[in-house]
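Reopening this ticket.

The earlier resolution said the output was attached, but the attachment link was broken on my side. Pasting everything inline this time so it's all in one place.
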Amino acid sequence: MKNLKITLISILLLLMSIQTIKAQNEVNLIAEFSLFYESYKNKDYKSAEPHGWIIIDTDPSQFLKYRPFKKMEDIVTFMHDSVATTKEEKDAYTAKAIKLYDRSVEVGAKDPEYFIMKKAYVIEQWSEATPDEKIEAYLTALEKNPNADPFYKDHLGLLYANNATDENGYKLKALELYLKLAEEDSENETWNSRITDLAEDMNQLVEYMKKAWDLDKDNMEKAWKYAEMCSKAEQFDKAIEPLEFLCAKSPEVVTYWRKLTTLYQKVGRTDDAIKAYKTLIELDPTNRDNYFNIAIIYNKLDQLSVARSYLQKASKASDESWDLPVYLEAQLYEKAASQSGSFEFMDKCVYKLASDTYSQAARIGGSMSSSASERVKALENSIPKQEDYFFRKYKSGDVIKIEGDTYGWINRSIRVK
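Inline output:
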């Protein structure tokens, strides 16, 4: 009895296999594709559609190189948009489009990212889904294809903006999205326009960005965007906190430190700016601007000797055509002489050193050449005259060392002409 039961099951399975093979053989996919392709080529979409669905539903794998899914998309879109299509038919084609996109990914059609994004677009544009459902469709698609065309990201942004409430936080999400788009394509005015439309003024934008960061305090991207928005709004004091956070999180990133040094200077935190510049120099010792910028700070602090040492490092880190460090060094000498409060012979010698250094800058032929030549001319009445040298028994070619308590840091000499 047991053997008879096994035999009956085997026979049943065999019959089922025969029926399956028979059903598959009843569909001649080659013929179906030929009919589909010819009708599609002749733009007889109504005739092409049923043959296309037979291929899509059965086994499209052998025809993928002919892009049947893209052709079926053309057909479905045409039929959906036709003026002769009723509301019920449009709804049916919406469902067909979604089914088509899902099937394309399932069988491994070419450009799956395209079909994933188009599914989200169809859900937004054709369906009666809720705003939240449409947003979720785009988020799902963008998660799988983060480099999608900005066209789709813009649609998501508009969904956020048009459905924002105080509770759902969509306005903040829209702002973050458009700020990122603006960062990626700064020349596209659409993104800046969208940002402006989202807020009444720059202060509100700053508050939005602060809220976004406060809600996700370890998010470095949100910290950077908040800092950038503060800077655009010229709220430099507020921009410091997120930049300090970024520098602490990624102390090796030069961009963060460079931005932070600028902010410290803008708000008058000189000591912090100096520390930040020294960190920048450690991170990027070949960057001439770091040496030059810290020299400017020390000059303003009247620490002329330190300022000069950084100017010299700036010159070493640059090519020979950069005359700005030499020009500023000349300014240091001129400043020292003018601050002495007297106009004695040694003061005149320091003015001569300034004049000689300006002449050196002018010979380099850089951007400061003209200004340097003007300073040489302006100092003509401040440098020693021939009688000054004569009364002190200096003759042409003699070397005079710059000396005195005021000028001890200079440690330079001039030569009598």
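Reporter confirms the inline version is readable. The first strand starts at residue 399 and ends at 401. Confidence is low (pLDDT under 50) at residues 1-25.
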